[in-house]
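# nightly structure sweep
# worker-07 picked up a monomer target from the shared queue
# config: single-sequence mode, recycle default, output format = structure tokens
# input follows
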Amino acid sequence: MSIIAYTHILVVISADLVHILKALADDNRLRILNLLRDGELCVCDIEAVLCIKQSNTSRHLNRLKVAEIIVSEKKSQWVYYRLNHETFVKFPFISIIINDEMGKINVCKKDLELLEKIKASGRCCD
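# output follows
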């Protein structure tokens, strides 16, 4: 590999890493990733658990999507989000944060409990 190609790869990885770290630097975005670690969720479930407005939820989800930490899929009128496993392979430290550290944070534990209650009560997007 030439030095130019190697330098280009380092610059791309560096830029990706900066976007990822900036995306992770928010409580609500970390809480969203915590919710998504067990599978995809509709945006309405995320809004309900975080108790934030749709516009704020969309802003946070967009930031995570631009950083390629999550991906989305439209099903009918609902948009579902899930973790982008390709990014987790490329940057394994994200998995450590989400899988090992988030479970130690009380608000994240409460978020998962609330999500289970919301799912059990019958969701508007199913």
